[in-house]
Amino acid sequence: xxxxxxxxxxxxxxxxxxxxxxxAMVNGVATDSRHVEPGVVFIAFEGDRVDGHExxxxxxxxxxxxxxxxxxxxxxxxxxxxxxxxxxxxxxxxDALGAVQALAAYHRGRLFCPVVAVTGSTGxxxxxxxxxxVLSVRSRVVATYGNQNNELGVPLTILRAGADTDVLVVEMxxxxxxxxxxxxxxxxxxxGIVTNVGTxxxxxxxxxxxxxxxxxxxVEATPASGAxxxxxxxxxxxxxxxxxxxxxxxxxxxxxxxxxxxxxTVNPEGCASFxxxxxxxxxxxxxxxxxxxxxxxxxxxxAVGLHLDVGLDDVIEGLESxxxxxxxxxxxxxxxxxxxxxDAYNANPTSMRAAIETLAEMQATxxxxxxxxxxxxxxxxxxxxxxxxxxxxxxxPLDALLTIGKRARRIADGARxxxxxxxxxxxxxxxxxxxxxxxxxxxxxxxxxxxxSRVMGLERIIEGIVSPGV
Length: 470
What we know:
Blueprint: E1 3-5, H1 6-13, E2 16-19, E3 25-27, E4 29-30, E5 41-43, H2 56-61, E6 66-69, H3 77-85, E7 89-92, H4 96-108, E8 115-119, H5 124-135, E9 141-143, H6 153-160, E10 167-171, H7 179-187, E11 191-194, H8 202-205, H9 208-221, E12 227-231, H10 237-241, E13 247-252, E14 259-266, E15 271-278, E16 281-290, H11 294-307, H12 312-321, E17 330-333, E18 339-343, H13 349-361, E19 368-373, H14 382-395, E20 400-404, H15 409-417, E21 425-428, H16 431-441, E22 447-451, H17 459-466
Parallel strand pairs: 4-5, 5-6, 6-7, 8-10, 8-11, 9-10, 11-12, 12-13, 13-14, 18-22, 19-20, 19-22, 20-21
Antiparallel strand pairs: 1-3, 2-7, 14-15, 15-16, 17-18
Helix pairs in contact: 4-6, 5-11, 5-12, 7-9, 11-12, 13-14, 14-15, 16-17
């Protein structure tokens, strides 16, 4: 946790002290007034829907020791007056995000723990979760919460680490060139993982080569004393490896790698088991998260764990106890007997294909039903990518396809063109329409996959299965 004097804080953020003593100490950072605890510095962001300056009084009442603001004193007169009454420091800066990033970079310079950074087109969150589970067997780990993987989330993750943190695990997302490089300047990774290079964000970057270049910023930022972990089965791993000054460790299933999986099988619940093979020995592993593709995420975590001197037995324990994050291949059975795979957090062609293949491999006494929505940020590939997913659906042993959204209608088109019976294909424009139809379709023993980009809000489909009539 960030701990420093107001004098140092003002210097780090390049701010102006409007009130309060610069000798006071702050402990921790909050950007949401609901999360303010005594002693923290509250940073007021001006967002599109919420302005943090409207909550300065709340932050003071909850015990904030300092406020960082971007508005002039005359525009926050009430908050400034209350702060002076309570001897709370107020610091004005030009850029709230820049202030958070500056504080995080300063704080990172005082940490002595390894920093593991994870990026990739797909699987980075689940890989982060596997790594955290492996390292947490014996160590105190601070890791990215939820989707805090951007220019604000990464600094906030760093600021949660403290002197008692053994390892910091940071997930890094990007939407354009230079963004990962900037996050690396703040986080100072000592190890980096690129899970793969896919087609997500191709609308913004143009082609896979540009995506690989952007992901490679993590490879270049990792120092020679560290390590880079790459998917040996990804087509761009060799390109990325050439950009590394750090030691490169590969993991994979098909191609030669230092960490590999053999004898891979999938149980009736869709969870993979395999033999993990490494220089430290071989062990059998049974994952609890559905999806054959999660073997790669588990292998990446094993490679990181072994690099950080985690014993092989502890690595296996961490892999087997890892749980899926919210709306990321979460599998459960509803009270009505319907088995649900909730993978509605995000989607791109690679993760969509992996999800429907997982559905096809799962044992079902009833029907296998795919509920698929739009995939975003695919640019010129939008039409073709959705169509090809539909073709893949038709080739797999799936019993029904529901699509939601204008783009996803091309999934229905692809399935129809590949020979899936038209009676089994149900395109919808809205989530509500799909949910209402699905309620009439599902029966006990069915398995339902729900998958789309986050903007589609397909969690309402899940609600309809769990609580019919919602």
